[in-house]
Structures are given as C-alpha cells and as structure tokens.
Design a protein that fits this description.
The protein has a domain at 48-142. The protein is 58% helix and 0% strand. It has seven helices and no strands. Helix 3 crosses helix 5 (118-130). It starts with a helix and ends with a helix.
C-alpha cells in the first residue's frame, strides 16, 4: 500500500461508528435520524450568512402559517411539523402566491399586481427545504 492509500484507509476507519448494543440504543425514528444527518451534512456546506437568511425566511414562513394555517404546526412530539405539509400541498401554493406578489407599506398588494423576482421566491423555497429550524420537532422548541 502506498502512503496515500494508507492515510485514506485510516480516515475511513475513523469515520466508521460501532453499532450500539440493543440495551443502550435509543429508539429513534429512522427517518428523523436521516433528516438529522442530512441537515448536519448540508450545514457543513452552507455559509453562515446563508444560514441566517434561511433562518429569517423560515421564521417568516412559520409566522405566516401561524396566521393562516395554525393546524399545520400541531404535530406529534416525535415528528417534525413540516411533515404535515405533505398532506396539504395547497398551503405551499398559497404561501408562494403570497410571497410572489409585492406589497406596499400597509401590507396590501399593489393594483395592478407587481411581482417579486425569481431570486426572491427561490430563496424562500431553499429556506423551506434546507432550514434546520423547520425540521425541529415541537418537543425541542418547548
């Protein structure tokens, strides 16, 4: 083995995690475990300023849900509330319809309508998909 392949083998061995014994293993929903792992991996690739933008946009989305669709935020203690959105795709359509239109200082839509840029709307899409705030369960926010 060459030196480089030996170093790679050592790094791979360091990453391998030994399985927990059945008596000490916590009971975790495998979907939630994978969501946690994927958010950690994405978090390592996302810059701090982007995380702040996602966090702000996720909070706007959460506040909008509190006003117009509060039942979505109610979920089981062990599952994230964002999973409820899958059953109600029309809610995302409403939200993006709201975000797409510009409003004046009184939060009223312009007449005739004026629309936000693609970049603005796509930022909300990315925030909803990637923000760890939305993936937290209700029990962790209490």
């Amino acid at each position: 083995m060459t030196r480089n392949s030996t170093d790679r083998a050592r790094r791979r061995a360091a990453v391998v995690v030994s399985p927990a014994t059945p008596s000490t293993a916590p009971v975790v929903n495998p979907i939630l475990r994978h969501m946690d792992l994927s958010s950690i991996i994405r978090g390592l690739r996302t810059k701090a300023c982007t995380k702040r933008q996602y966090s702000g946009k996720a909070m706007i989305f959460t506040r909008w849900l509190e006003l117009y669709h509060p039942f979505i935020l109610q979920s089981e203690p062990t599952s994230p509330w964002i999973a409820n959105i899958n059953d109600h795709p029309e809610i995302l359509e409403d939200f993006f319809g709201h975000i797409c239109q510009k409003t004046n200082d009184d939060d009223e839509y312009f007449d005739p309508p004026r629309f936000q840029s693609y970049h603005h709307v796509n930022g909300y899409k990315s925030a909803i998909l990637k923000s760890p705030i939305l993936l937290r369960s209700n029990s962790s926010s209490d």
